Amino acid sequence: MLKSMTVTAHNLVTAYLDDLATGRDVACREYAADDREAWTRRACLALVKAGRCVATVAEAATRGGPDCYRRSEYLSLDVMLYEDAHWGPPVFIAEHENFGGMAKVQYCAWKVLVVEAQWRVLVAYFGRGTEFSSFPDLQAAVDLISQHNCNRTVVLVGGDNGVRPQSVADLRQMHQWAMIGAPFDAGSLARSVSKLPVA
To answer: Residue 81's pLDDT is what?
Structure first.
């Protein structure tokens, strides 16, 4: 179970970065220019693609990508994939937070952790212009919220806000990820920081 969750989390993160990479130069320019609105829209659409790894037939709602009911947001979440045939818990939810304040990131972590879902993803940033000097600092802030919410799991993707990517390889290398929450313990490989290979 642990290994399959870790592999699936890796696939989710890879799909997210692969979709960001399809924009190539435009994606790098938006990120480097600190165009938060354009970057958030791009990131949310990429998160929908990532969610398709675990929910291929689900409806998807996000900014710039409304579902069949013409809704672009449910429960104030940036991304949600759900099966409307039975209206059970969402299959995949995600938040993208490009403001690097502790309170804002922890609020976004709380938003995804209090909703029952099969998969939760939070994309946030560390480094220059944030309150997190490193990915482990960001990870610790999110882990604290997970602990206060029954150790529910969330895939945390962190981007280095100090990097101005010039290429798709730069864009990939500036991201790190970790699985946070149960059933992982402090010594678990799945909980350690994982860097993605350059594709």
So the answer is: 94
